[in-house]
Structures are given as C-alpha cells and as structure tokens.
Predict the structure.
Amino acid sequence: MEIREITPGGNESLARALLAVQHAAYAVEAAIIGDDRIPPLHETLDEVRAAPLRWLGAFQEDRLVGAIGWSEDDSVVDIDRLVVDPGAHRRGVGRALVGGVLASAGHRRVVVATGRDNRPARGLYEGLGFVRTGEVEVIPGLWITQYAHPPTAQSAKDGASDRADRSGPPDWDEALAPRQRALLRRWLPGATVVRDHSWGLVATSVIEVLCAGSRFIVKAGGADDRHIERELYAHRHWLRPWTDRGRAPVLVHGSAEDQLLVTRYLPGVLVLGTGHADQPDTYRQAGELLALLHAQSAVVDDDYERRENERSLAWLDRPHRIAASTVARLRAEIADWPTPPATLVPTHGDWQPRNWLVHDGIVSIIDFGRAALRPALSDFARLAVQDFRRDPRLETAFLDGYGIDPREAGAWYRTQVRAAIGTAAWAHQVGDESFEAQGHRMLAEVLAAT
C-alpha cells in the first residue's frame, strides 16, 4: 500500500475514483448509524473537486482504496473526511491515512468528528490517541462525536471531571474495574498512561504505560471476557519458543481471576497498514514463527470435529444476516460432515498481519487472547481469505517459512465454512459492518467452489 498526496480538483479520473470510494464508505457508515443524512454521501463530482481540502490517498497497485481530506491553519488541522473502500476494510488503510495527517500536523492540534454510533470509526480514532471533546446534534436526530489529538486544555478538564469519581489514579483508563486499578497500583506503582491501544469492539482494554523508566502493556478484560484467561495460559505454556528469541512480549504479572495481565512492551509497528504487509519476507518470517508454535506438542481429539460442528450450528441460531436459503444449505451440509479424529496443536487463533509487529525488519507476535488447541490449518484461515487471496507470492513465502502445507482438502473446506459463519455472525453482533461483509464474502466464495 502506498500513501501519497492527491489533488482531485485537477484530475477528473482521480476525482471520480475518489467519489466512488467516498459514496461506498459513507453508505457503510449510514448503515451502521441508521441514518443516511450524511452530506458527503450525497456529494456530486463537481462538489468533491471543488472541496477546499488537502488530500492523502491510499493506493493498492495504483487503485485508490482510501483517502483523507483536511483543512488547516497555523494552530489546528481539521480532518473533514476519512473514506475507505469497503473491500479494503481491516487492512489498516484508515489508520495509515490518519497517521499521515498526524505526522504532517507537527505540534498542531488535530480535530475530527464522526457519527456517535459509528463504533468502528470511534475505535480507530481512540486507538490513535484522540480524546473525545463533546457531542453535537448536527441535524435533528443525527449526533456526531468530536475528538481532538492531542487534547485541548478544555478536553483535559472535561476528562478530569469525568474521572473524578474513580478510585484509581486519574491516568488509568475508565474501562478498568476498581479491583483492576487497585491491582495495577501494586504491580506498577506510579505508572502513567502513554497510549490506549484498545480496539473498541470488544471488552478488552489494551493500554501502554510507563513505570520507573520502562514501558509495559496492560490488558484488562470485562466480566464475561475469556481473552485474558486464554492469553495468560498461552504465556505460561506455549510462548517460550518466541520469547526466548525476543519475538513475543514477556509476561510480567497476571491474574486470571481479575482478568488482568502486564507484559513488557515489545518495540515495533503493526505490519497491517504498512509496506511490510506486502513483503514476502514478512510472511516467510511469520511462517517460521508459526511452525515453532505448532511443533511444541500434539494431541489427538476424537470429538473435536463434532464439537466444532455444534459450535457452527450455534452461531446460526444466534442473530445474523446470513440468507435463509444459505442457512438451510449450511445446516444440511454440516449434518452430513464426517467427524474424524483431529490432531490438535497450540494455535494463535487470529494469525494475520494485524497481530504481527515489525522492528528493524524482524517480525514479532502479539495478542494471544484466542490461543487454543486446534488443528494447525486453522491458523491459515485469515491469511487465506485476505492476504493470500490478493497476492499469491505471500502464500508461497509463508509456506516456505512454515515448511509444509497442512491443509488437507476436506478438513480445510470445513474449516473455511466454519470461519465464515463465525465471522459473519460475530461481526453482526458487535456492529462491525465491514468485517460482517467479509464473512458473507467468505461464505459465498467457499460455497461457490463446491
């Protein structure tokens, strides 16, 4: 992916591409917030070309997949719009574009607003360090949330007021429960927050803190969150092949009962949204690391396939937007699937560039909240529908690093179908429209291949 400045006012073909991305992006937001009265959704080509904005565009093989437009003066940079092609969601395009504006802003304050109910966008801005400064009803019934980066004096004052009733230090994230803040005070006395890395769609909070001159990552889960328990188990039983090589964060403190853990900060940038996401060597290293994880142990489970079939059927019983005819076909297929014994190994559970860091050309791994014993091929699922699909060279490099291809045809088909069902249903339940669309695409493609 390449980020570069664009001038749609002077290039009609570029402006048409920008308008198409803008309309598609705001159509997704309109569906998320339940309101299509978003002005850029209805702009014409002439209006886009005449907009008094500076622009950055994101390009994938010379195709515009996203753009950000802003105005600026000597003290403030005002992000007017951020648009990403729905087909390029979850690849770090939006994060890279906002990061480009932040980098060019210098010491100036950067402000932005998004729909109050647009949780994916709010999670993006908050994860990049933006602070909420207020809410405005711009049209009767249509509310937006305003953000600033870094916070203004007034937003800092408002934030302090919002936190006045908390028992923990004022720097700790509001999502932490009192018992978690108390435990952190014992583990990391005097620690201060550096940055909030939370995703925004799940209950887990991820916070970078500074204590006694060292940086740490704090993860805190909600009452019904199993991610922390799984992550702690992975740290204590499976990550040694990586931590011994400095390729995964080292656990410092952890409490499954309190849904809390602390690891040492691991330097690097996320692969997702950078040029490293298109480099075969990144995937070769990721394949080598995954082989180390999988090689530690193996158990044969006679009941695994049956349990997974039941899990997929349970997803179909929950709220989703999978077509009734597709649901009927899936239920019939799953009922006829064989249930052979399965060989299970330690797996990451979300193996893809958004959980890989790169530092000085070396790839490392984060986020073990989905770690569990599964068939090795399950860690290929996300890569197959995203990265391998767009560039076969990445698959070749990954397999070179991993050593073999464990994807036996029958088991791989069942794994793909299960992953598609879970993606479409889970994303619908948390309100992630773009990820839900990916789940539906996964289903359509895997079923069409049979």
